[in-house]
Design goal:
This is TIGR00153 family protein. It is built from seven helices and no strands. With about 210 residues, it is mainly alpha-helical. The radius of gyration is 18 Å and the shape is elongated. The relative contact order is 0.15.
Length: about 210
């Protein structure tokens, strides 16, 4: 298991602590974005970009430490892939925050309740990913967390369907208005999908260590 791989290794312990910080930073960004949507405060969305820059620095530090020799070679690609998945979720969150600044607010008001719910789920699912990673380290029940993340992801899929049904019934005035709202919804709903993929990869890492 993971504890046998990291026992006594300073580099390994550093990577694990940095991964925890990386995931926690993503959780802070999802919370920040949820608050921005709840308050419809466009200026608040810039905190996502600030946290993304901070996370990017942490990601580079993790990869650098792994290249210094942390972990046995067979497990390094799996850990790097997990980090990249979390980083991709960060990028998509930043894209959603960017598009939000250019939304037609009259159109957004129609789907606002569903979008706020999805943003809240994104925060919860991110916290679950953090707990799932701790479970991998401490031999907890990873399968249970993985299942809970899947349940949240299914809720986002259902809400995306509701949003699509609403948007189909309204008149879009021009190409850019339609593209921005479509991209925003796509980015907002893709975050949970990426976190689910990252959670699945934790399960793959666990199996590879048996």
């Amino acid at each position: 298991m993971f504890d046998k791989i990291i026992s006594g290794g300073k580099l390994e312990k550093k990577v694990i602590e940095d991964i925890k910080t990386h995931i926690k930073t993503l959780c802070l960004a999802t919370e920040c974005f949820k608050n921005a949507l709840t308050s419809s405060d466009i200026e608040s969305t810039f905190c996502v970009a600030d946290l993304e820059r901070e996370a990017d620095s942490i990601r580079r530090e993790i990869i650098s430490t792994i290249h210094e020799g942390a972990f046995l070679p067979f497990i390094r690609p799996n850990i790097c892939r997990f980090i990249e998945m979390v980083d991709e979720a960060f990028d998509i969150l930043e894209d959603a925050a960017f598009e939000f600044r250019y939304l037609n607010m009259e159109v957004y008001r129609i789907i606002e309740p569903e979008c706020v719910k999805i943003a809240s789920i994104n925060t919860n699912i991110c916290e679950l990913l953090s707990i799932a990673f701790d479970s991998l380290i401490t031999k907890g029940d990873l399968k249970e967390k993985n299942l809970a993340i899947r349940v949240y992801e299914k809720q986002v899929d259902d809400l995306k369907f509701d949003i699509t049904e609403k948007l189909r019934k309204i008149e879009i005035k021009n190409f850019w208005e339609g593209k921005i709202i479509t991209d925003f919804v796509e980015y907002l709903t893709r975050i949970s999908d990426l976190i689910e993929d990252a959670s699945d990869y934790l399960y793959i890492i666990e199996i590879s260590l048996r």
